[in-house]
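Encode chain A's predicted structure.
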Amino acid sequence: MAKNSAMRLTALLLLLAGWGQTMAATDPKLLLVEQKLKGFSDGDYAPAVERLLAEFEISTGVGLKPGSLGKCGLKISSEAGLGLATPKPLIRALGTALMKRGFTKDAIILCDVRQQSLQQSGFLPPFSTERQDFEGFPVVAYEPNAKKWAEEKKLCFENQVLPRPGVPSPPWGDARISILPKTLFDEVDFWINLPVLSDSKSLGVHGAIAAASLGNMANAERFLDNPASATKAAIEVCAIPGLAKKNVLTILSLERYQILGGPGFDANWCLSEKTILASANPVILDFIGLQKINAGRTARSVAVIHPEPPIFSAANAGEIRLGTCRPSEIKLVRLAAE
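Encoded structure for chain A:
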């Protein structure tokens, strides 16, 4: 009898301990990790990324481990070409950290919209007849797959904005439809967003939200000339449950970011900082990005982005809640370089 009571007590204590840990966990969208870098080499990124991921997992209780599909996605940014693409040492470091957590190398899928920009940025070989990978990591370009993906309604984002005059009709026939990536919907347990930061005429800030939305579907160029439509489309895509649920984290390296002329690359307006920022909340990352862009503009006597771009209010309007950008509501964890 005493033995049974002791067993029940032990079970209760374990349950309460687990409950306490759960209660103490930080909401992933309220956590911001700032990790400093010593430099930008593979050897600098590797320990920094491992420490960053460990902090995220411990603080939030979210494990970055294989699930039922055994695969994860890394949404990289290559649209501006080699000069302003996701840093390769960050990708290598993240790949190594994920393999330590149980993924095989061929189960970590790099993806972005255009095959051409992936080739220009060095993530794909110059010929499509060659193996489509980056140092052993599979690479998927959306555009070559978009016609087939368009057969699935959930992958079709419809908006009445049409492309610029003279732009050829897309392979799926309807220029009012953009195609979302099946890779990130159906083929991975989760995906991590790896944007680069720049200014943007359409959104004000081209960063985490842009990369997860307009930079995450084929036929999105039609929004770039219309800021109101671009903001609406970006927020709506980020809020799509099938896409948003699996986007567990965004990691933004400030190795190179651009304060003017973005999102196209212009080396004259690029700055650099030995910092990585990470959060499940894309809004706070873009808000910090806006401050850095404006600080850089002020230092060079260039007009700042003002008023605040509407994407920040739209990110938490109506039923949409992408995440707060109020610093007072964010738990900031600062990690020094080692």
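Confidence is low (pLDDT under 50) at residues 1-23.
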